[in-house]
Design brief:
The chain is of the alpha/beta class. Helix content is about 35%, strand content about 25%.
């Protein structure tokens, strides 16, 4: 069994989580259009994007002389009030997202996919997160930290925003962007040695 894969992501959090479980990887980003389809359910959205990133990465591998290894792709989104909250466009968008989640529960969904020459296999992690009531001062201070940039739902649970989270029901690593349990199962099925 190999311990090497490609990771279709530039996320330092995903890299850190893979290192945590002893998986070696080469970064092979797969950039795709992340716009939701009309009427698309959030669960379908994150799994579709993870699979699409895996397909793009696999096609790139098959069209090159690079070593053929399994490729892991993931996508994370926040869902509240029937709205998918992706990465904020700017600070005002980040503030609006944080206000929407303040004092409430929201869902963090992460789709993962592993591509091999024999197919693409996917899974979904869904975690419920309760955020404390945030004051305007809390929101401004957090946005000033620049941490919300590039984060689904405008926050990173493993960073300063951890102080805003009252409780979670589900996968902490899934909220970070790579659910370890589901990822491990998919990688083992693809012949990757974990741990």
């Amino acid at each position: 069994m190999s311990k090497h894969i490609y990771l279709a992501s530039r996320s330092p959090r995903r890299a850190e989580l893979l290192q945590q479980i002893g998986v070696y990887f080469y970064v092979l980003p797969s950039d795709v259009d992340e716009a939701p389809l009309s009427g698309e359910a959030p669960q379908d959205y994150v799994v579709r994007l993870a699979r699409l990133k895996a397909e793009v990465g696999l096609a790139r591998l098959q069209g090159s002389d690079m070593l053929m290894l399994p490729l892991l792709a993931a996508d994370t989104t926040v869902f509240v009030d029937g709205v998918i909250l992706g990465k904020p466009e700017d600070d005002a968008d980040a503030a609006a997202m944080l206000r929407r989640m303040s004092g409430r529960w929201h869902a963090v969904l992460t789709g993962i996919a592993v591509a091999t020459p024999s197919g693409i296999f996917s899974a979904l992690s869904s975690t419920q997160v309760e955020m404390a009531i945030l004051s305007e001062a809390d929101i401004i201070a957090y946005i000033t930290s620049t941490e919300p940039r590039g984060k689904a739902g405008a926050y990173a649970i493993q960073g300063l925003a951890g102080t805003f989270i009252r409780r979670i029901e589900g996968s902490y690593s899934g909220v970070m962007g790579l659910p370890i349990f589901e990822t491990t199962q998919l990688l083992k099925n693809a012949g990757i040695k974990v741990l």
